[in-house]
Amino acid sequence: MNIVPLADEDRASVRILELACIREYVEGPMGRKWEEFDLETRQKLGASASGSFAHYRGSGLSFVAKEGGRIVGFVFAQMMPWIDGIEKAVWVENVGVDPEYRRMGIGYMLLKHLALEGKKNGAQVVHSSISPDNVSSLLMHKKLGFLAEDRKIAYLDLGKFA
Ligand SMILES: CC(C)(COP(=O)(O)OP(=O)(O)OC[C@H]1O[C@@H](n2cnc3c(N)ncnc32)[C@H](O)[C@@H]1OP(=O)(O)O)[C@@H](O)C(=O)NCCC(=O)NCCS
């Protein structure tokens, strides 16, 4: 298994995998039906969506795990100039692993690779947004050393905000 930078030619495969991971979360912890999301909404979901793929590919901080040429995991991330008064912070947008390849350490290795690469690029911290009901993700982050207690990111949708 290799961890390599996300490349343009990974787009189609990583899109399928990221959407499958999102669908799993929607139908699992979120308890909603995938069919509730119309095609237009689905097309916008995830970092691999057409509007954001190039941004994450170009961030230098997005990676895929490949097993015999097949993409079995991904992490999309970017460097933020400042977060919480700290200059240079890696922001993890999404991380996921093919269900057939889970519990083999791939998610952990992707996050670790990202953290080390971020550090090499001057980052002081890594931020990652995790839903409290996503136990596997929470435990994976904790295994790497993330502090997750008492942390929440509040969110304001500016769509209808005036
Ligand atoms: C979360 C996810 C990325 C973990 O990937 P993974 O490759 O299976 O994780 P790893 O094998 O690297 O596990 C690392 C550690 O995380 C914890 N962990 C991962 N999955 C777990 C599970 N199902 N139950 C309990 N602990 C789990 C364990 O502590 C594990 O270490 P261990 O195997 O030594 O006990 C994967 O389950 C996934 O893709 N889920 C769907 C997408 C998702 O929720 N992404 C996170 C968005 S924030």
Structure, explained:
Helix content is 33%, strand content 24%. The protein is of the alpha+beta class and 162 residues long. The protein has a single domain, classed as Gcn5-related N-acetyltransferase (GNAT) (Aminopeptidase). Strands 1-2-3-4-5 form a five-stranded mixed sheet. Helix 4 links the parallel strand 4 and strand 5. The chain is globular, with a radius of gyration of 16 Å. The protein starts with a strand and ends in an 18-residue tail after the last helix.
Question: Which characteristics define this entry?
Answer:
162 residues, 33% helix, 5 helices, Aminopeptidase, alpha+beta, binds coenzyme A, 24% strand
Which CATH first-tier class would you pick? Alpha Beta
> Roughly what is the average pLDDT, rounded to an integer?
95
Q: What share of the residues does DSSP label as strand, in percent?
A: 15-25%
CATH homologous superfamily annotation:
Gcn5-related N-acetyltransferase (GNAT)
State the helical fraction: 25-40%
Q: Output the strand order for the largest sheet.
A: 1-2-3-4-5
Low-confidence stretches: none
Major β-sheet annotation: 5 strands, mixed
Query: What's the CATH topology label?
Result: Aminopeptidase
Ligand inventory: coenzyme A
Radius of gyration: 16 Å
